[in-house]
Predict the structure.
Amino acid sequence: MRTKVEDINRNIYDIKNKDNYEFKIKKGLSKEIVEEISKQKNDPDWMREIRLKALETYEKLDLPTWGPDLSELKMDNIATYVKPKSDLNSSWDDVPEDIKNTFDKLGIPEAEKKSLAGVGAQYDSEVVYHSIKEDLLKKGVIYTDMETAVKQYPEIVKEHFMKCVPINDHKFVALHAAVWSGGSFVYVPKGVKLDIPLQSYFRLNSPESGQFEHTLIIVDEGASLHFIEGCSAPKYNKVNLHAGCVELYVKDGAYLRYSTIENWSKNMMNLNTKKAIVGKNAQIDWVTGSFGSRVSMLYPMSILNGENAKTEYTGITFAGKGQNLDTGFKVIHNAKNTSSLVNSKSISKGGGSCTYRALVRVSENAKNSKCSVSCESLMLDDISRSDTIPVNDIRTDEVTFSHEAKIGKISDKEIFYLMSRGLSEEDAKAMIVRGFAYPISKELPVEYAVEMNNLINLELEGSIG
Amino acid sequence: MDKLLEIKDLHVNADEKEILKGLNLTINKGETHVIMGPNGAGKSTLANVILNNPEYTKTRGTIEFEGKNINSLSADKIAKKGIFMSFQSPEEIPGISTMNFLKVAKNKVTGKPVKIFEFKKEVEEYMEELNMNPKLINRNLNVGFSGGEKKKNEILQMLVLNPKLAILDETDSGLDVDAVRTVSKGIKMYKSKENAVLIITHNMKILSELKVDYVHVLINGKIVTTGTDKLVKEIEKDGFAKYKKAEI
């Protein structure tokens, strides 16, 4: 573990490429801008109509009246579409040098060779690389960028696009639907089980811009998939915006594991929306690590619509100086014998703020359901914040429900104990924090678990006196 | 005689209250010292303050180790100089196995890379001597260990880190007869002419198998008398009443 820590190149995430776009739309949001994006993307009419309708909805909806302060976000200063100087490629050799270098440094092509069944890589607003292993193609698995899906599989997209997450869900969903660009589309046919994961990586390079990728995944009956999503951006002084949308359909008897490592730079407003509709005997597991961004509002939701549907949420949030990370999990139990298990941890330091905000709803027909929630917070100093705001709406008596919350400061006694064994104060704190995070980090894909430990060390460096 | 530890006129506060009130103590290589005293006399404070636990403030006096003032060194630096403390209530640290922790500690204290295969063998041998369940080595540090297992784990760390001075803060408290005997055995294994032990205890049993050089009675923040192991027997019989009166 130590050698890896010492070997880390701390500048990986912060490498800024020149803002070398082919086309960057003018800042702000208007009907003309949305129409221009639609034109640039050669949308079919039905998609253009969705965009325009979504813009109307956006204008009608108010900003959330709760949660972190979003006043720094001015849509007039954000370019919602930045087309990189690259087409969609199926070979890394064809990706322009500067873009390819960025993904090289993030370790994407290497991970692809070693441990992935397919990769998508988005740079600013467009996907620049997509690949899938030959044998999966033969089994009928589809893994492509969202634009290709709109054109090649319009019926599937029409049936599912913005149906799991309705356009009027909240203001930033409406914004997303109006200006979305890029993202991945996955279809796993009935009974097909992928034993190695697919991964999409989203990189936002352009300053004062937004990324609005759309991820649509359908895991058909009895099929199984592990999907990994990674995201990062270099740091700028001005605000960037991420308002992605993830729609997941886990059909009867299917399994989906959705892992995310979010490492946006600290000028990012991360206002992301993720939902899954889960069928009979099906299961979705969310594994989430949130480390970056200035403000995050992110609450993945599982809607358990089929009997015996299951969901697990395993999440960790790490907020440092100047960060306000408002995250959590929502679950709707809509059928008999459904179950949910939540294990959330948060770490705050240097005045950072972590909020665990959650909803558990058990409807009247969800008899014999089970829900167990555990959330723990660790504060590394006296100036940081941690809050837990759970909402439990349980409409039947025939349910087993438990909620456990623990908020605590890092223990001086533990630090002293470790220091008495020769560890410096920094090493002692890092060991305690890694130990606290371990139950979560062990669930992350292995490269990301290493990355998380590195991030913890990075975050703790220089945090002492 | 080689002087290891020398404490002069040490005054220590905890939460603004004076706990140690002018304590003097000298420990040389090869010696075994025992500190006894009633509850609240300042015994654990003494152990903690030698390692510079930030919960305590030194208001006067000096602590020297091998001739150097260590008053303001942090605990990790003191550990690197060769002082070890066995904790009264060892902390539980999730997420790191006992074996990995021992490796990290050994590496930090010595500043040298640890030869994994040899080291593992050494640890396993010590564990066998200490009658420890070999499975504990893969469990997280002290997490879910019984009281006795935690204390044995402290003795294991002492053996592995092989300090110049080991301070045992009530390592025997709460242990059954067999475990006390095991701890005592561990101390004997560790002890050599080159190092020293300071045992803080209420319990006479741990001392019965050890050769004790000095016994100090600590009352109300000061050492009121120092004697040989005969003093242990006397206190076992009569308690601290005599010394408490003298103090008043």
